[in-house]
Amino acid sequence: MKKYYHDFKVILFAFLLALFLRFFVFNVVIVNQTSMYPTLHPKDVILSSSFYKFKKEYKRGDIIVFKSKDENKLLVKRIIGLPKDKIEIIDGSVYVNGNRLNEYYLVDGSYTYSDKEIFSLSEDELFVLGDNRTLNGSYDSRNFGPIKTDTVVSKPFFRIFPLNSKKFINGG
């Protein structure tokens, strides 16, 4: 009987540790869309740090995982606008607070389509875009508007799969 009690404690501890790690340290995300192409591809499996949502140190250019209010699922996008920023999309280019954004992560010749030109963010909002800026290439803030900072779940840092791909994301 003692052996079963010991085994139960070990299994319970392992389960609780796994839950803690999953919700408070990191999570595994499978990319299901092409919206972050060429940075991320469909079926990429990435490790994502949950500490990011607690630190709230958002940086322009960071790739984040957040909970979509419209689709009730997790989305992966890049932060373009920070709280209180003014985002303008003019002639296919993105401007933040009047300055053209240098988007080194985009494919040369990319054109950012948008029906709306100006987005003003409140103190608890972020503006996110996918790296695939082709027409209908990414469902992002151009479609659903800014996201609330409290919807951020994590920040990807390492690609697990495919094995032969570049491993570190967001500078690791």
Automatic annotation (TrEMBL):
<dbReference type="InterPro" id="IPR000223">
    <property type="entry name" value="Pept_S26A_signal_pept_1"/>
</dbReference>
<feature type="domain" description="Peptidase S26">
    <location>
        <begin position="8"/>
        <end position="160"/>
    </location>
</feature>
<dbReference type="GO" id="GO:0009003">
    <property type="term" value="F:signal peptidase activity"/>
</dbReference>
<dbReference type="InterPro" id="IPR019533">
    <property type="entry name" value="Peptidase_S26"/>
</dbReference>
<dbReference type="GO" id="GO:0004252">
    <property type="term" value="F:serine-type endopeptidase activity"/>
</dbReference>
<keyword id="KW-0378">Hydrolase</keyword>
<dbReference type="InterPro" id="IPR036286">
    <property type="entry name" value="LexA/Signal_pep-like_sf"/>
</dbReference>
<dbReference type="GO" id="GO:0005886">
    <property type="term" value="C:plasma membrane"/>
</dbReference>
<feature type="active site">
    <location>
        <position position="77"/>
    </location>
</feature>
<protein>
    <recommendedName>
        <fullName>Signal peptidase I</fullName>
        <ecNumber>3.4.21.89</ecNumber>
    </recommendedName>
</protein>
<feature type="active site">
    <location>
        <position position="35"/>
    </location>
</feature>
<comment type="similarity">
    <text>Belongs to the peptidase S26 family.</text>
</comment>
<dbReference type="GO" id="GO:0006465">
    <property type="term" value="P:signal peptide processing"/>
</dbReference>
<dbReference type="Pfam" id="PF10502">
    <property type="entry name" value="Peptidase_S26"/>
</dbReference>
<keyword id="KW-0645">Protease</keyword>
